Each structure stands twice: as structure tokens, then as C-alpha cells.
Amino acid sequence: MTDSQETTIIYNATLLLEDAYGEWEFQTGGIRIHQGKIVQLGRGVELSGCGEVPEERTWDAKGAYLTPAFTNAHAHSYTGLLKRTVDRRTLDLYMLEVIALGTDRSLDLIYDATLLHASELISWGYARTVDHFSQRPFPTREGMEAAIQAYRDIGMKAVIAPMFSDIPYLETLPNQMQMSSVRATASARPADEIRNYERLLRESSVRLQGSRDIQVALGVDGPQRCTKDTLAMTASLMRELDIGWQTHLLESHTQWSYGKERDISLPTMLDGYGLLGPKTSLVHAIWLADEECERIARNGSHIVHCPTSNMHLGSGISPLQTYRRNGVQVFLGSDGDNCGTSSPYELMRTAARLSRLDGDNASDWWGAQDAYESQISVSTLFPEVLGKGRLSVGEPADWIAYRPESFRVTTPEELFKELVYYETGRSVEAVMIDGNWKIKDGVPLRAWRNKLERAQKNMDVVLVESAEKLKQAGALFHIVQESAEASRGIVRENWVGNPRKIGL
Ligand SMILES: [Zn+2]
């Protein structure tokens, strides 16, 4: 029997709640949890009168600040095996290496990578994530099942969006028509792969219907990497199955130059396919023009900002103030474990501070509350069964407790500043997901630590075996470098407005 099938009483806590008007407030009290859900909350929950609950199922929070668990709006589980492998790589060089390292993974490796990735996220207090799931050369039901099993074993909720593309990477770089080496490697993906992907999504959405921990979404790798047929198929599937659709968009200047060379705007192209809508999730969106941002806002799509990944790969500074002026909703994502930390604290403070490099009007900058709300709130990719990212009755019991002696704050606004600008994770006393303890007394639970040791050993073997694959990827670096040089020229001549990267 798991913890969540019993009743648990948390008492003597300082709860971070929203009042009836959506304003944040502190309330002293507790949480009564039954079958993983919050059934009572606030001042009325005290230890007295709870005699029906055995003592070991109660927890004296001793004044700890109880806040909603975090949400990760974009990540890749396969990078759980690749932490510490990337330094001084632009996005395009990085892609050559991860494509080489991520191809033909066994089901055991998919399981281990997901386990390592999910344990990292849980250790930071995330309860749910969007896994832009990569399985190369193409996603399979068995691969998805291996990842789902890892999430279930560790007890983390996920939306799995299997990534798909049917145009080879090097063909989608600017200036590629001039390069005979690229033309020689170009090869179209067989049409039956598109049909297989469609079938996989249909079957998964039926199989996971009603699931309270795992859901599925469409995961396009990048619009420039998909044929017209694929984009059209995903558009109709999004509407028919009523599921989310996530893609990387305009992450690097080379992606913007690729569109410029063809005189197309990628967001306008997506709109043409009916792919901009309330269930659409656009990741990165750095090299975005003002009118494209307006179009995204008009269609009600949201953007996932990945500040640490954007900086780790030198992709550029997201136009956070333009998003804000246009009213685009923004959520925070960690992206890969190999391109920056997934620490929500670092994501929040980097986002807030980066917004200050995009203009001098301080009232347009992100404040601590903006960053905090972007990190706990759920995007439209998360069905309601996975939780709304708030502590309230009827919601899953997903929360983080911070030791009261670590900092003294008296208002929610002070707490937001503490968590966004100063916290590192060292003040975390406890984490609960769906009513199950994940961290207690500041220590992750032993049951999944043991499984991780095996995964960690497998990871070490894989990295040793990867040397040859990396060498082969390195042999293609010159193609990317020539393309990037051409792209910088295109940007210098054509980009209008604030540069997204200094010194291009
Ligand atoms: Zn990504």
C-alpha cells in the first residue's frame, strides 16, 4: 500500500494560498490528505480531533512554509544520461552530438535515463513535467512504455510528447544548398514513419485516457524539420484528440536565417496549418519578431522560456518584455539536463534578471512574483487531472516545505523574493507528490536512491562507449560552422530591432 491510500495530516504549517480573488496570502494551519488529494486545508486542520490517524501519519511542520510543488513546462528525459557532457557548444553543434548519442538506445537505457532525469526533477521539488520525449531514429510504443514505467516507479507526473521530424537536421541549416557535403547526406524519411507516428499518438491517447499520472501530447521537433504532410497531420490530430502540441521554435539565429532565406516566417507558417491555438506550446521563441509575437498572442498559444539552456548554448536573450507587452503567457522549462541546471531557483532568477537586459523601463521587467508564478503554474499541455499547481481542496497533494529557520518572511511577496533571488534548494525540508513523501527531513527517500545507483553505473558505461559516436559527430562540425557564419551575415543585414545576441 502506498502512502497515498491513507489519510495524512500535516499541521502547524504556514501555507501559501490564493484567496477567492486570486491574491496570495499566508494562512497558519495544515493539510488533511486522503488518497493523494487535499480534502481539507487551512486554519481548521489541527492535530487535535485527528485521533483516527495514527501518529506516524501526522507531521508537525513546526511553522515550515508550505508552497505548491514546481512544474516543468519543457524537458527531455533522454538527457538524464548526458548530464555533464556539454560545454562550449552552440545549439547546432550540440544537436549533432546529441543526435549521435541518443540514437538506438535500448529500452533499459530509456528507462534509466528517465529515472535519472525524474529523480533530479523530484529532488528540486517538481511534481510534473512535459517530457519532449526523444527516441531516435523514431519513437515507439515500447520506448514510451519504458519511460512511463520509470515515471511511475519514481512517482512523478508527466505529459509525454514524443518528438518527431522527417527532414534531416543538416538540411535545415541556412546556406546548405551551397554545400555539397550536406546534399550528399540528405535522405528523406519514409512516408510510413509519419503514419507510424500518427498511430502511436492515437494508441497512446486511448491507452492513457483517464490516467491520473501520465498523459500524451504531440511533440514536433521543430517546424523547419517537418514536411508539409507531417505538419498537416499533427494539426488535425491535435484537434481530433484534443491534446497539446509542443515544438522548439526559433531557438537559434540559424533557424531564423533558414526562414529568411526562404522568405517565410515560421510562426506564420504554423498559423497557416492551424497549429497556433490554445493547446500550442512554443519552446524558446528567442528569434521572434514583434509581429510574430502578436500573432502568437492573438491565437492564445503560450511560450516556454528556458533561460538556463538558452544561455548555456549561447542561443540568445528571449524578448521577455515583448511577450509581456503582447500578453503572451509564459511558463518556465529546464530543457535538457545536459544544457544547464534544472534548478527551479536558478531558472526563476535567471528569467527575472535576463528580462532586465531587454530594455530600460523597469516597469516592464519581470519581478519575483512573475518568475515564481511561471514556475509553479501549469500550461495547457497539462490536463487537469495532473494538478493545477496550487494548494486547494480537491487538488493532488503536491507541495514543498521550507524550513522556517532558513529565512524569516512575513508576506508572500517576501517569500517570492527569497525563493527567486536567494534560495538554492538547501532550505527544503520535505516534498510530497500525490500524497507520497519524496523528501523528508531534507533527504530523498531511499527506495528510489537504490534504483538510481544502477542507472548511474549504466550511464557511466554508455558514456565510455560514446567516444566513437562523438568523433563521428565532430567530423560534421565544419558544416555547421560554415552555416553559422553565413547565418551571422544574414542576421547582420536583415534583423530589425534589439539584437537577441550581443556581438553577432
Ligand atoms: Zn528542448
Automatic annotation (TrEMBL):
Domain annotation Amidohydrolase-related: ranges: 65-437
Top-rank taxon, per record: Bacteria
Gene3D superfamilies linked: Metal-dependent hydrolases, Urease, subunit C, domain 1
Keyword set, alphabetical order: Hydrolase
PANTHER family according to UniProt: AMIDOHYDROLASE-RELATED DOMAIN-CONTAINING PROTEIN (PTHR43794:SF11), AMINOHYDROLASE SSNA-RELATED (PTHR43794)
Protein name, as recorded: Amidohydrolase family protein
